[in-house]
Amino acid sequence: MRIYLVQHAVAVDEAQDPNRAVSDAGKLDITRTAGFLSLFVQPQPKFVFHSGKLRAKQTAEMFSEAWHLKDEVMFADDLSPHAEAQVWAAKLNAMHDDTLIVGHLPHLPRLASLLLCGDADIQPVRFQNAGVVCLEKMGDTWQVIFHINPNMYVRENHA
Fold first, then answer.
1. 66-107: per-residue pLDDT in tens?
2. How many domains is the chain built from?
3. Which end of the chain is less congested by CB atoms within 10 angstroms, N or C?
4. Domain membership flag for residue 158
5. Are strands 132-138 and 141-148 parallel, antiparallel or unpaired?
6. Residue 159 within any structural domain of the chain
7. Peptide bond preceding 81: is omega within 30 degrees of 0, i.e. cis?
8. How far apart are the first and last CA of the chain?
9. Model pTM score
10. Measured between alpha carbons, how far is residue 76 from residues 84, 101, 145 in Å?
11. pLDDT by residue (tens digit) across 14-40?
């Protein structure tokens, strides 16, 4: 079983849009990340979950569309920024199907850390907007399969 953990794409400022929709730059990042990944592997998660926040929902929908997923993108409890990582760690440990989860900091790094290290505070993985961290369950343990983000293949503008 593989899980794809995605931090939502860059959103517009709250002053511009209180709902914080994905920005144009964020949309481009999702397109690039999903497309880049499709060159090497075609993820086919059976389940696609998001936190319910607009930026996470839009990110999940864009990845789902880019990867031609047929299943519905679904809201899931306990994916908010400050949700307890143990809730989803237990769910994922009980699941058997590939799953895409779009969420937020600090929840995602804590979840990945809990799965990989058994301790939510170690946080060995650095998440970035519109990046994908793929973990695979091997027996009772989880391993990092890959970690990509938009800055890997598009030069950051430091101007």
1. 999 988 899 999 999 999 999 999 999 999 999 999 999 999
2. 1
3. C
4. no
5. antiparallel
6. no
7. no
8. 41
9. 0.93
10. 13, 9, 24
11. 999 999 999 999 999 999 999 888 888
